Amino acid sequence: MKNWLKIILITFIFLGLLGYAYPIKAESVVISNISVYDIENGKGKIKWTTNVPTKGILYYGDDPQNLDRFFTYNIYDRYHTANINGLDIDKTYYYKILANDKNQNGSETFLLNFSTRNMPDTISPRFTKREVVQATGDAIALYWKTNEKTTAIIYYGFDRDELDKRVGVGGLLEEHEFVVRNLEYNAKYFMKIVASDRHGNIKGSDIFIVHTTDRTDINDYRIYDLEPTNYDPDLVFSDTVTLKFKTNFAARSYMVYGEYPGRYHTRVDINKTRRNQNHQITLMNLKSNTNYYYKIVTYDNIYGRTLQSDEMSFLTLPEQTQMVLGTKIISNDIDSDADGLSDSYEMDLGTNPNHYDSDGDGYDDGTEIANGYDPLGPGKLGTFAYGKARIANDVEQARARELKVALEKELGRPLNISIDHWYTVVNSYIYGEYPVHAIAQALKYSGKTVHPTIGWQAWKNTADYQNYINK
């Protein structure tokens, strides 16, 4: 072999060995050229570049401690643009960008912000809800919501084509309550609400009809249909009690309670943001086997009156021990009979976790549930949450109590969330089969590790879940 060929060959071998022994370090992901632009009409754009192709997630919100909105960029690229919406005027918004390349090298920006002060607005407001709260003999209580802060004028009259009376509703708010007074008894009124935002954009509701009633005695103000008046298995538990009652006039309400007669150490709002005739509150973190004494206060009814109940009481149940089912530890990952339903869900549902066809009709339990049929017999069962049938009420409540204890242990503090949010959390645990740790992380990080309609088996593979589950 000629000498020059030997030299070239040796050089290539040497470079190959050098590259193998000292691999070139992957280039770090750098996020740059960030800009916010086209901020108008509650929308905007944020763009940025990366030095290598990346996917990205933009988190943003008006609370620097809770970036509760996000935009996902699912294409590997160097140039990225995120569309953001739901922006309110005269606010500061915070955001953060996360980027990952094909080798899973990542980068994250510091917390950044932008302002919507003087944001142009040329779009009319939109009604998202409108309802007649109550009609009495001489008054009509209305409630409505708009998608942005507005004032309003209510037009009304006896003729649809001539709404000759009007009343203004001041205060820039998204939620409005107003009582139209001094009306005639037993009359048919045509009404329309016209909302106006701070830029003068207006939007009128449809014309709606409201009938006033017979003469109303405003002094006949009552609290009634109070539950529970004694033990109720649907309302009273060892550490949780739900109270319900009604008022004949729509009102706001709160309650005070304590462990001794006449000594109330805790106040809880029931209906604060809006008047209602139906009132309900769930008290949590109560002591077991304990008498609690309480009073209900309803105030600011549609005639401005206040009413307080007599002192009442309830007794929580004794502490209940957890049931152990044989010696088998149930996991959301176990499906012993391979019918598509986890053993834990089958035990809650009442089907046989060790036999794929519990009722012996030739269809496996998972197929029957997926198609809305009863896996324990003939007929339809329907679906409740996450495409699954609802389990028995007592089993569901027991699982909810089990989750509460586990979450408080995981979080190291008492659980304090709204009732609507609690229902979502319980459903994710029972029907979505999310583990306690994933739910706890969701409570910390605005739901990133729990999806309200997609079960854990699928959601655990998403980027949001992976990024936040061990954070």
Largest sheet: 6 strands, antiparallel
What is the annotated CATH architecture of the largest domain?
Answer: Sandwich
CATH first level of the largest domain: Mainly Beta
Count the beta strands. Answer: 18
Order of helices and strands: HEEEEEEEEEEEEEEEEEEHHHHHHH
Mean residue pLDDT:
83
Work out the radius of gyration: 30 Å
pLDDT < 50 stretches: 12-25, 321-332
CA-CA gap between termini = 61 Å
* Alpha-beta classification: alpha+beta
Number of domains: 4
Key descriptive features of the protein:
471 residues; alpha+beta; Immunoglobulin-like; 4 domains; 6-stranded antiparallel sheet; 8 helices; 17% helix
3D architecture notes:
This protein folds into 4 domains: 31-115, Immunoglobulins (Immunoglobulin-like, Sandwich); 127-211, Immunoglobulins (Immunoglobulin-like); 223-315, Immunoglobulins (Immunoglobulin-like, Sandwich); 394-468, no CATH class. Helix 4 crosses helix 6. It has helices at 3-21, 343-349, 365-370, 393-411, 419-430, 436-444, 456-459, 463-468; strands at residues 31-40, 43-61, 69-85, 92-100, 106-108, 112-115, 127-135, 140-157, 165-180, 188-197, 202-204, 208-211, 223-227, 241-258, 266-283, 291-299, 307-308, 312-315. The chain is an alpha+beta fold. The relative contact order is 0.07. The longest helix is centred in the N-terminal third of the chain and has 19 residues, at 3-21. Residues 12-25 and 321-332 have low confidence and may be disordered. Strands 1, 2, 3, 4, 5 and 6 form a 6-stranded antiparallel β-sheet that branches. Strands 7, 8, 9, 10, 11 and 12 form a 6-stranded antiparallel β-sheet that branches.
